[in-house]
Each structure stands twice: as structure tokens, then as C-alpha cells.
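Internal ticket #5521
Category: modeling
Description: The requester needs a full-assembly model to guide mutagenesis choices. All entity lines are attached below as received. Residue total reported by intake: 740.
Assigned to: D.W.
Attached entities:
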Amino acid sequence: MRPKQRRRPGASVSTSQTLADLPTGQRCIIDRLELPDDLARRLMELGFLPGNEVIPGKRAPGGGPRVFRVDGSEVALRDATAAKLFVRRDPESDFVVLS
Amino acid sequence: MSSCHGATPRAGLLPNPSILPPTPASERPIIVAIVGPPNSGKSTLFNRLTGLHQKVANFPGVTVEHRMGKAKLKDQHEVFLVDLPGVYSLHPRAEDEQITHDVLKGEQPDFPKPDAVILILDVTNLGRNLVLAAPILSLRLPTLILLNMADDLAVRGGKVDVTALASELNCPVALISATKGTGIDRIQQFLLGTAVRLNAPPPKIELPVLQDVPKCRQWAAKLGVRASYQAPAPPLWTRRLDAVFLHPIAGPLIFAGIVIAVFQSIFSWAQPLMNGLQQAVLGSGHWMTRILPDSPWRSLLIDGVWSGVGAVVVFLPQILLLFLFIGILEDSGYLARAALIADRTMAKFGLQGKSFIPLLSAYACAVPAIMATRVIENKRDRTATIMIAPLMTCSARLPVYTLLIAAFIPNIRILGDFLSLPAATMLGLYFLGFVAAVFTARVLKSTVLKSRGSSFILEMPPYRWPTLRSLSLRLIDRAKVFLRRAGTVILGVAIVLWIVAHLPLHDGKAPTLEHSYAGMIGKAIEPAIKPLGFNWKIGIGLITSLAAREVIVGTLGTIYGIEGDEQSKGLQAAVHHDLSTAGAVALLIFFAFAMQCFSTLAVVRRETGGWKWPIFQFSYMLALAYCGSWLAFHIANYFLG
């Protein structure tokens, strides 16, 4: 399966930052998913779709998968997957304090 | 519990129209499907609408479970509800999603297309949940949309205009709380409407192109705006609890603490209840011996059936307690966190965190666990999980472990009041099964089932209080399954065993056990099991336990029942005649590893589509059991004397 690039129409700036690079609480906007089609589709159904806001949250103890807040719910992803989700920083970029 | 459990055959709940009971007034029963994303409260709603008028069944040809139930309405009307597996869309990825898709499209063989749909959505997360409305409404079936968790929405300061949403979607919409039971009358109205006039007009609205996920999302977002939807604040308690449960140090410690506490309480809390049941079984056996005339039939009834089945039924409290704990962990939302914590460890063995959930339920029973592997999308990961699931310590091993531990392991406290030696032994056996499972996984995943790196995507549900209602439904369900097994498999084995233990007749009299057919079979395999420290009587138990593990307890009950004098001393004392402590340790190890369960083999065959995997599984588990118990016997002998 060849990774397929998905690009939001109108997204002009290409970005090389991924969800895996962000510190906890850093708001960001999904730019594109460079994943096989079916995996990308599942992630989009869960809310990881271009233009949507994602906030990285807690990591499982010992460096396991990380929980991302997206669309009012929380979804856990491994770093290997998160590294394929390219993001833009929010223009009014700010940190959210996650208790 | 009226017609569906009464004279009408229970097949009345089966969806196949050809075997539905003839209903006097209407032609065929009305079927309403309940659909929704995972964690939206489908099952809670289903339980609330049907109560105990439900049963779990498999779709013909596949092993995906579905639940059918009957909802009673006003004026003698009733409809059949079917609870379909949770889906995020009608674009199937895993097998259970395929079923939901096929049933709704009317493509499932032997299953009539539903007459109407109840779509249940989590209103605290409407943005994502509403997306599912598009494919459901495109089915053009009468549809009721339920916005569940209305109580949560209100508490957390969100709101939604139901009337506006209903007019946008052109179909009835209701705010409900399935756990609290608010808004249920609105559902009954809808069902009654469906029951009375089948040709309710399907909604006509414009829908987005279903293949295009971003388009569907935009459509859902626009709907949300028009219905002035305000998403609630994130659940505060979920974050606070996650701060503790996912804490780098506290998290794993709590995880271990919960597991230990569960095992300790299974062992100590269930004991009084089990003692009570045991007294009842023994007492009623003595009482029947007194009132019945002496005949072979009395012997069959008391020594065969009563001792055999009774010895197993005694373990009901313990098994229910285990299911209660698993139910609490699952319903509260902790299980998803456990999967998250476990992912890193599971990845080391080539599996993923999602495999953890079926493996944990395999602690209760491997059969539902093997069915639960459907959530794993990667086929090789799934096969590997199926292969190792029976190594997890299922509840059928509990009777065997409990009997042997209580009989042979001295009750010494090793950690103050917190942990005793018997509980620690039990915990050790559970741990042993787990270790054997993960190493088998490692071996399989690096040889025959090698695959590219798998992904792990898991939604974290918010923490919720488990409800008494759903927990008790679970327990009733489990108790039924257990007692049905005791009444069929175990009863059958007990009767057959009693017969082969009483033949051939010598001068019209039953032989001693040693000279009966059962004894001969036991003697025949004795050379093979002698190196493990087992004699021919244990051998009889090993053979009968091929049907199901707990049968060995029933078998020993029957054997000692037949031998007479030892019955009164109870099984724990009697088993000392045939096992040394080292032999008991070896027997424990044998049961930890061996594949003694017809039901599991059958379900593995169905799930993997052939005999190859179940035969492989049976052979390697037997080999593991034989070598493991041989080692255990010799090591224990060395240390114990």
C-alpha cells in the first residue's frame, strides 16, 4: 500500500511538523494524513481530518501511545501513526492547560 | 417472561422468518435495528427496552454475536429489537462492522431487512456522531434519532435544539438518557408507530456524498450550527482520573493493585458462599440417600449426577465474582486505559494494546474473547491473539485451581493481611498463563504470523459509574451459561462416567472402580502420565476434562462418590489419596497450559475458517502442558522431599 497524500484544499503552506513533535497541550490544526487509505479514513472518521483542531494530551506510562483530544473526545495513537499526521500551528497559537 | 420463554419455542427470537412462530394478527414480526457508534450507549438502551426478553445469538454462517430482544408496547403490540455492533460509518473495515452494514442493507443472508432504525448518538460529542446519520438516513428507512447522555450534556453545560435538528433531518429526534431512563416514552411512541403502520414515510433530505469523509463532516458541522449545538465542557472527572490512572508511576502501580485486589477478593470473598453451597450439595445428597430406596438408580442419581454436577456448581459464586469485576472494569471505562498502558508491553511481543481487551476477557472465558478479537483489523494480529487466548486463565480453570490449592497449599500469610500463600499461588498461575501467552505470541509473530508494524487506534471513553442494572444483567447472563453447561456437558459426562465406572458387571454386581471400564481406560494411559505424578484416577479426570476443564472436578466428585466412604470427607480430603503435593503442582501446571475445551476449539475453527489452527493450537498446548508439568513435578519433588 503506497501512502497517499491528502491535502486540504486551500492549504497553501506545506508543513513538516507532525502530531508526534508537539508538546502536551499545544493546539494545532491537522494539515494532511500521509497514511494508507483505510487507516486515513478511520482516523478521519474519528475526527483527525484536515482543518480540524487536535490537542495532544497525556502519554501512557513508560512511553506508550499518546491520547489526543479531538472533537470533544479522546483517541489514543502510537507515535508511529502520529508521525504521519502533519499539522499546522494554530494562528492564534496558544497552549491549553490540561489538568 | 411471557411467550418467548413459555410454550412457544425460544427460536421465536431468531430472526429467520421461516422459523418464527406464527403470529395470529400480523404476518411477520417487526424488526427494528439499533445502530450507533461504539460507546454511544446502544447496549444500555437495548437492555432498558427489552429487559430480560433477550438472547445472544450468532448471525448464520458467521460468529459475530448479535442480541435480539422483544420490546413490549401498549395494546399488545411488540417489536423485535436487534442490537448491531457499533460502527463509525457504514464503510466496513472489520468483520463486525461488515455485519452492521449487511443487515442494514438487507444483504445479510437469512436475516430480514429491518423495518425501521433507531440511531443512537452520544450528544456530548455530536460533531463526530452526527456523521453516522448520513449513511443511516440514506437507507430510506423510518428512522428515530436518539441523542443519548442528555444528563451529561446538561451537567457539563452543553445544549442542543432538538426541534431544529428534527426539522433539518426531517425525522424524529429525541434527547434521552439511557442510563437514567429519561425520554424512553418517546421511543415507545416511535416503536408503536412503526408497529401500527409499517409504511411510515422515510425521511427525504439532501445528504452528502457518503464516500467523502470531509464532506460528511462538513455536513454534520453545519447541522450542529443550525441546531445551535453547544458542545459540553470536557468531562472534568475523566481528566482528573486520567491524571492518576495514566500517571507514569502511580498508573502502573494502580493497575497492578487492581489486579491483585481482584484475585485476593475472588479467593477470600467467595469462600463463605462456596462453603455454604458445598454443605447444601453434601447435605441434600445425604438426605436423598436416606429417603430413596437402595437401587442402581439411586447410585446414578447421587453418586453420578449429584456429586458430579454439584462439585462444579459450587464454583458459581467465584465465577460470578470474576465476571462482576471484569464488568465493573469494562463499564467504568478503565479497560480502555488498561489497553493503553498495556500497548507498549504488547508491542514487545508483536501484538498491540487492542489485543489486551480480548486477552483480559479471556480471563473469564476464551470463547467470547476469541469473538472479541474481531476489533483487531490486522488479520495476522488477530490470528495470533486467537492462538494465545486459551492460555489466559479462564474461569473454567478456577474450580480446578481452587480445589487443588485449597487441598494442598497451606494457608500462610505472606504479605500481612494483604496476600496469603493460596492467593499468591492463584495469582502466580494467572501470571504463568499470561507469560506463556505472550511468549507464544512472540514466537508466532516472529515466524508464521510475521507482519508489518501494526497500528493502534483506540478511543478513550469517559469514565462512568457502572450501573447496577447492566452489571446484574451481565451476571444473570453468565450464571445462565454456567448452569446450562453444568446441566448439559457436565451432566452428560457425569452420567457416561457413572455408566463406564459400573460396567462390566461381575455376577450381576458392579465392579470396583479399578476393574471397571473407566478404571481400565485410566490404567491404559497411566504409563504416559506416571512421569507427571498422576495415577490412573487422575487419568480418568484428564480424559473427561478434554470436554471442559471443570469437568475434572465433577469427575473426581463422581469417582469418590462411587468409592463411597470418602465422600463425606469432601473432595479436598479425598484427593490427597491420589496426589502428592508435587503431583498437585504438576496438575496445576498441566491445567494452566492444556487445551481442554471443545467450545473453544469449535469457535477457533469457525473464526479461522478451518481445522488447521485449532489442531495446531491443541497440539502445542498439549505439548506445553506435558513438558511443563513434567518439569514442575520434578522440581517440586526435589524441593519438597
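Resolution: model delivered.
Comment from assignee: Confidence is low (pLDDT under 50) at residues 1-25, 57-63 of chain B.
Ticket closed.
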